[in-house]
Specification:
Chain lengths: 162, 385
């Protein structure tokens, strides 16, 4: 199983992250292609504001084959554009409910809030997210309906520990 | 130089946030509510000021006596006077923190200059209100502040003498002086609310008040301070009195303290230069426009044929840059065929954040520098890399 491989393994879950250009500084954390050095399966895309993300894009990322997607905004209350991260948090809450109705684990979609110098907390949250994704069933192929529910229940203590 | 200094200041500002956010939940970080706190203190000032106004007598013989009466004989009068004093200090501290924080974190870019300009005017008026407030007490400090102020006005070349005469109501301190000073205290304070309208007019949901926790904490701290360290008057002002040393409020009376060491004309010039420099700040960007990358993606554009007039972007735009107009013709897509309204972006208000793009489920908005096709291409690269 891929869960036992060390970080950076080829079987790591593919994750795409949208990062607000005013939020956490990723210059020292990524390579030229936007891949995180600490977790090469995570690719970051910088956007003008977290509120710029259209929820349908996040769905498309999951449809295109990524196992997780996250959006990073500034700390709540400190959005440079005043409300972008609050709006995005609401949109992600809605999308998570929609995903759940379609039997897609809402844990695959994460909203984060980290300031310019919060690099450590940011990496820690990504590490936790990848660890969680490793324990989720691979989305490709048909699954019994009960499977995601059980996986979500098993994953919830870990989520609480974040 | 400017660029590097500002980058360093931004780094320290946000480092400080990281520390504060470890103590408080981010929603309660007091530095995120400096504007709301300043507005809260202004409100406290207005309420306590109205109370003090009922007792104040603006005459040379009655002013000091009426303030003493208020402090010593009126129930809770001393407390309310103290609240007025300390809320004024807290107001200027909050306003300055608000100024520096927004400066250091780049919150003046693009069309965000109108809050900045109105804020500079409010700062200038705030300083005037504070200085005249100290004159109104009409103790020896008040007299020194007033004569220094008149001296500074006289130092302005050309019109200075006339301005000083307008302030004093005659060639020197006369019975007409204190009513004028009172007007200069209350009038600009009312004008602050007009400027606040200008400060808020481009913001969709301005954070006018801090969270309830901070309202209560601020009220408590100010009341406690006013009770423990009461505001007191010095000896009554008398024109022939030899000046002695007394405590000067650093937040309001710094120019007056400087005037003790420098010629008045230099102090006036320094204040004028600082004020003028303040107006230039929003137009001095620390990054060249082409180096800003995704931060400068261009004014949002409505894709006319796709717009359904659903108003979602209009509700989400934090800067009121999108208005809905009656649709002059139907849209092209099926969803847009029966639209009644059409979204229009007002270029001069757009800050290029792209929040409307995220709000639009009909692909009817684009940032010219960061198109939806760019996002899709990058996502495809990312997933298949």
């Amino acid at each position: 199983m891929s869960a036992s491989t060390s970080s950076g393994g080829a079987s790591d879950p593919r994750v795409v992250g949208f990062v607000c250009d005013w939020a956490v500084a990723t210059g020292g954390l990524t390579d030229a292609a936007g891949r995180l050095r600490a977790h090469p399966s995570v690719v970051l895309i910088r956007v003008p504001c977290s509120g710029f993300i259209r929820p349908s894009w996040l769905e498309d990322v999951l449809k295109a084959g990524a196992q997780g997607v996250f959006v990073v905004g500034c700390p709540y209350g400190d959005c440079l554009n005043r409300e972008g991260n609050y709006l995005m948090r609401e949109r992600i809450d809605q999308l998570q409910r929609r995903l759940q109705r379609r039997k897609i684990e809402p844990e695959r979609l994460v909203m984060m809030a980290h300031g310019l110098h919060d690099g450590e907390a940011f990496l820690a949250e990504i590490g936790a997210m990848i660890e969680l994704l490793r324990h989720l069933p691979v989305p490709a192929g048909a699954k019994p309906a009960a499977q995601p529910m059980r996986a979500a229940a098993a994953a919830s203590p870990e989520e609480g520990g974040r | 130089m400017y660029r590097r200094t500002l980058t360093a200041l931004q780094r320290w500002t946000l480092r400080l946030d990281v520390w504060i956010n470890r103590v408080y939940p981010t929603d309660l970080n007091p530095l995120y509510y400096t504007g709301g706190l300043a507005n809260l203190f202004l409100f406290i000032l207005v309420l306590s000021g109205i109370f003090i106004f009922f007792y104040y007598v603006p005459s040379l013989s009655g002013a000091h006596e009426s303030v003493t009466y208020l402090t010593e004989r009126v129930p809770y009068g001393g407390l309310i006077r103290g609240i007025h004093r300390y809320a004024a200090d807290a107001f200027i501290i909050a306003a300055l923190l608000h100024l520096f924080r927004n400066w250091f974190t780049d919150r003046y870019l693009f069309s965000r200059d109108s809050p900045w300009i109105s804020g500079m005017f409010m700062l200038l008026l705030g300083g005037l209100i504070g200085a005249t407030g100290y004159v109104l007490v009409w103790d020896e400090r008040g007299l020194v502040v007033l004569s220094t102020f008149a001296g500074m006005l006289r130092a302005i070349p050309g019109v200075g003498g006339n301005l000083a005469q307008v302030l004093l109501g005659g060639p020197g301190v006369s019975e007409g002086t204190l009513p004028r000073v009172l007007l200069l205290h209350v009038g600009p304070a009312s004008a602050l609310y007009v400027l606040l309208w200008w400060h808020y007019v481009r913001l969709r949901h301005p954070k006018v008040w801090p969270p309830a926790t901070w309202v209560l904490v601020s009220l408590g701290v100010i009341t406690l301070l006013a009770a423990l360290v009461p505001a007191v008057s010095g000896t009554p002002a008398a024109p022939g009195l030899a000046p002695r040393t007394f405590w000067l409020d650093v937040f309001y009376l710094l120019p007056f303290w400087l005037a003790g060491y420098l010629p008045a004309v230099l102090v006036v010039a320094a204040v004028a230069i600082l004020f003028a420099a303040g107006f230039v700040i929003p137009y001095l960007n620390r990054e060249a426009p082409d180096a800003m990358g995704t931060r400068h993606a261009g004014v949002a554009q409505v894709i006319d044929g796709n717009c359904t007039g659903c108003e979602l972007c209009y509700y989400d735009c934090p800067y009121d840059a999108i208005v809905m107009v009656p649709s002059p013709y139907p849209g092209l897509t099926r969803a847009a065929a029966n639209r009644k309204l059409l979204a229009v972006v007002i270029d001069s208000r757009c800050v290029e954040c792209g929040i409307c793009i995220g709000a639009c489920p009909f692909e009817a908005l684009e940032l010219p520098g960061f198109l939806e096709s760019d996002v899709r291409r990058r996502v495809a690269e990312a997933v298949h890399a």
